[in-house]
Each structure stands twice: as structure tokens, then as C-alpha cells.
């Protein structure tokens, strides 16, 4: 693995950040 993806918490988007961190990429955005 090259590096670990970590998205910092912003606003009340816990599920979005959790899923993106789990999937190791920016798969979900606030719009989705």
C-alpha cells in the first residue's frame, strides 16, 4: 500500500468520511 487515505471530519458528514476512509478514496461527496 502506497499511503493511507485519511479524510478529516468536516461538518456533520460522519458517514461520508467514514466510507471514504474505509474505501481509501474520495468516493462520496456531500452532494451524494
From TrEMBL:
Tell me the keywords, alphabetical order: Hydrolase, Nucleus, Protease, Thiol protease, Transcription, Transcription regulation, Ubl conjugation pathway
Q: Which InterPro entries match?
A: Ataxin-3, Josephin
Q: What is its EC number?
A: 3.4.19.12
Q: Where in the cell is it found?
A: Nucleus
- Provide one Gene Ontology biological process annotation: proteolysis
Give residue ranges for domain Josephin.
1-32
> Which PROSITE patterns is this protein grouped with?
JOSEPHIN (PS50957)
Keyword check for Transcription regulation, yes or no: yes
Annotated GO MF terms? cysteine-type deubiquitinase activity
GO CC term, one of those recorded? nucleus
Please give one Pfam family short name.
Josephin
Enzyme class of the recorded protein, top EC level: hydrolase
Catalytic activity entry? Thiol-dependent hydrolysis of ester, thioester, amide, peptide and isopeptide bonds formed by the C-terminal Gly of ubiquitin (a 76-residue protein attached to proteins as an intracellular targeting signal)
Output this protein's name.
ubiquitinyl hydrolase 1
| Organism annotation | Homo sapiens
Q: Which gene encodes it?
A: ATXN3
